[in-house]
Amino acid sequence: MLGWAFGSPTNAQAADAYPTRPIRLLVPFAPGGGADTLARILTPKLHAALVQAWVVDNRGGAAGNLATEIVVTAAPDGHTALMGFSSALTVNPALYKLPFRVEQDLAPVTLLATAQYILVLHASVAAGNLKEFVALAKAKPGGFNYASAGVGSPLHLASELFQKRAGISMAHIIYKGGGPAAASVLAGETQVLFGSVASSLPHVKTGRLKALATTGIQRTKVAPELPTIAEQGYAGFDVSSWYSLLLPAKTPVAIVNRVQGEMLKAVASADVQQAMSRQGLEPDTGMPRELAARIQRETAMWAQVIRDPGIKGE
Questions:
Q1: Residue 174 burial (CB count, 10 A)
Q2: Fewer CB atoms inside 10 Å of the end CB: C or N, the chain?
Q3: Contact at 8 Å (CB) between 259 and 247?
Q4: How far is residue 40 from each of residues 114, 117, 119, measured CA to CA in Å?
Q5: Bridge partners of 146?
Q6: What is the pTM of this model?
Q7: Which segments of the chain have a pLDDT < 50?
Q8: C-alpha span between 222 and 169 (Å, rounded)
Q9: How does DSSP assign 69-99, residue by residue?
Q10: CB of 46 closer than 8 Å to CB of 76
Q11: Cα separation of 92 and 62, whole Å?
């Protein structure tokens, strides 16, 4: 496995002059989604700190690969950045033939935020907890349908990983997006969903859905009353969407460090954390090497999940 490119040798002069023009922040999805919302929460803070504007550039398409390629091929001067989304960085290498290598062609800056998923059932399913649902699913192989937003989507792969760990088999029903997938469970067309915590909880509270577990190692602050899958007999189960900031490889270390420092200050501010919480996001930052290690670890995990059942990209 190739090592990460953490930037060219420190150039204090370059960092002192940086930035010399607006910074282009590539978001790999259309406006209105989680990545776009987070970018627009953070960029005013970065503009204030670095004087130059951070311009959000939404480049959806190719499952996030289009935006990533733009950043990979940009000049390594800190004026083009990527709002990295977990699946685009760690799932796509196993699903698609890419013209770049994440570990070779990007310089990690910092993790920004995470969002767990929640395992929910249609209200008619006769299971009150995870153990009871697994027992039902084992008794009826293929008897439950789970909804996803498409092949290789987080909703799909979380379900595949859980089936593998639990020793169960469910039918995969694909919808065009997370919203239609969630609607199918509410309507009873499907019975199982690894959904967004923020969008699923209101339906849990009204009794239309049953919540069995969240998907992180630790309980989410958004719904601390819900146990995790890991604590219910599946040690180490950890599936979360997360957002990060990356720059082109060979960006001077001094610029990487400066951007990281300003981003950490932005995420730590009370108003940013409140805005994140409203979106179901939990602040989660760290050093570049910590982000690199997470990408490497999850890339290996998802490659195995994809390879074993022979999942192919759409």
A1: 15
A2: N
A3: yes
A4: 16, 23, 29
A5: 172, 192
A6: 0.89
A7: 1-2
A8: 30
A9: HHHHTS-SSSSEEEEEEHHHHHTHHHHS--S
A10: no
A11: 10
